[in-house]
Design a protein that fits this description.
Blueprint lengths: L1 E4 L9 E7 L13 E8 L5 E4 L3 E3 L7 E7 L12 E2 L14 E10 L11 E11 L26
Parallel strand pairs: 1-9, 6-7
Antiparallel strand pairs: 2-6, 3-4, 3-8, 5-6, 8-9
């Protein structure tokens, strides 16, 4: 499972993220010509982010490929074709891309600008967990209660 850390939207701190994947195992395009497309889909909101990594390091082939991208703060403009994404959406805030579990898909393609997975070939899929910058690993905020503890509960025989 991939662990992804969100940017700090309070202090405007970006996070450079490295992920290590084995997408090269099924790759059919030569390493010098391939562009990887990454899709992250929130299990909470079912919304997807698509981006191309900033850089790809293949020094450790055939073991793994390291992909680098940047999670930017809420005040910057995302540039998915250069690997600069954000989980903050102006309309939905963090509800559009909430912290928590995501599925990920990695595709191969020869285009450096295509963000449509229909025009690419799937190489790898898996799970990712996006966490808050401060390390909060909870999907639900601490002030959430699934029940009201002040309501009297009765049990009848």
């Amino acid at each position: 499972m991939l662990q992804i850390r969100n940017a700090n939207n309070t202090t405007n701190t970006d996070v450079t993220q490295n992920i290590y994947v084995t997408a090269n195992d099924l790759q059919t395009i030569a390493q010098a010509s391939v562009y990887y497309l990454i899709e992250l889909t929130s299990l909470g909101s079912n919304n997807s982010l698509y981006f191309i990594p900033t850089s790809v390091n293949s020094d450790n082939l055939p073991r793994y490929v390291r992909m680098t991208f940047t999670i930017i703060d809420k005040d910057e403009t995302a540039s998915p074709t250069t690997g600069r994404i954000k989980f903050y959406d102006a309309a939905g805030k963090l509800d559009t891309y909430p912290m928590g579990f995501y599925t990920y898909n990695i595709y191969e393609q020869t285009s450096s600008s295509n963000l449509n997975p229909a025009n690419a070939t799937l190489l790898q899929e898996g799970m990712a967990y996006v966490r808050d910058y401060s390390g909060n690993m909870e999907e639900v905020t601490p002030d959430f209660n699934e029940y009201n503890p002040t309501v009297n509960q009765y049990v009848y025989p």
